[in-house]
Write a structure and sequence with these properties.
The chain is α/β, with parallel strands linked by helices. It has helices at 19-29, 47-54, 67-79, 92-98, 116-123; strands at 37-41, 59-63, 85-88, 103-108, 128-138, 148-156, 159-166. Strand 1, helix 2 (47-54) and strand 2 form a beta-alpha-beta unit.
């Protein structure tokens, strides 16, 4: 099989999930995401969304506000002929507050210096299916707020990552 090149423009703040962290995450989720719906909020390079699609996700929704990166994601989805991925070029907080869809897995990797997490922890329970999980990546350790249970957690270099489940 001939490999295809995926390119991304230089964009300030673009910080792809390290390979080791991504491998751990998908081990936690199971090797297949067959039939699951995924949301890659603050998609950046799209590494998590592309990985989910390659592992059989029924649909992956990517959200990326940076228009340069958004167009690169569109181009790469088209080049790879991935019909199970859609991408939206809007603000992640805005998307999360207006999107009526529910997801089995939400990948949440907002800019490390942002104050988005507290607001997203309030919005995202309504976006998760009954058995859905939330993956959070951050530059500092976070305490799961009330209503959220840490399923797994880890740290690699400067990256802290957790898999959370909302308790009803």
């Amino acid at each position: 099989m001939r490999s295809r090149v995926i390119t991304f423009p230089d964009a300030e703040g673009l910080r792809p999930t390290p390979d080791r962290v991504r491998q751990t995450l998908f081990n936690w989720l199971g090797q297949t995401l067959y039939g699951r719906s995924c949301l890659d909020l603050f998609a950046g390079s799209g590494a998590l969304g592309f990985e989910a699609a390659s592992r059989g996700a029924a649909h992956v929704t990517m959200v990326e506000k940076n228009q340069l990166v958004y167009r690169a994601l569109q181009d790469n989805i088209k080049k790879l002929a991935l019909a199970n991925i859609s991408v939206h070029g809007v603000d992640g907080l805005e998307f999360a507050s207006r999107d009526p869809q529910r997801y089995d897995v939400i990948f949440l990797d907002p800019p490390f210096q942002s104050d988005f997490l507290p607001r997203l922890f309030e919005l995202l329970p309504a976006r998760l299916t009954e058995d859905g999980v939330l993956y959070v990546e951050s530059g500092a350790a976070i305490n799961a707020p009330d209503g959220w249970q840490v399923v797994k957690s880890g740290k690699a270099g400067q990256v802290h990552y957790q898999l959370l489940r909302h308790q009803k």
